[in-house]
């Protein structure tokens, strides 16, 4: 664990920040020799970082693995060994020069395929988004109409509860209009009273 922390610090400080600062100075001073030197270093360091991603998984158990990484970074940076320039001139440059056309063709094809895939997935994403928006709008409209309908029914019931309900049947009989059932006893009673008064007289 300690060796891993030390190796990460060494790679970060001496393998990344230190070369980045001197690359800045080379660009600022427009020194072609230094510029080429640090460009070769960055190419080798990119390959080293790519390989490190896999070796950290499969070779981390190897004895002195992290110490070897520290020594390799120091060898790349040392002005005495010039490890990055040596690796670039002996291995990387001849390999890339012989495979440059194939690599360029693969990059062009990959770029075209990625563009087509991006357009295809973009269209599908837009279709899905449009469908979801339409469904959400329709559901929202239905919920809104149901809400308005519930409000209208509630308001109608409130109005009916507070106001005087309209009569649904025929109007009730008034005081001057007597029904046949109640009027007949009144007439017989008045006739009997008039008969009694006449007999007395």
From TrEMBL:
Keyword field contains Transmembrane: yes
Membrane topology category: Multi-pass membrane protein
Bilayer-spanning residue ranges: 6-27, 39-64
Keywords for this protein: Membrane, Receptor, Transmembrane, Transmembrane helix
Protein name per UniProt: Receptor expression-enhancing protein
UniProt feature, compositional bias: Low complexity: 188-201
Subcellular location: Membrane
Source lineage: Eukaryota, Metazoa, Chordata, Craniata, Vertebrata
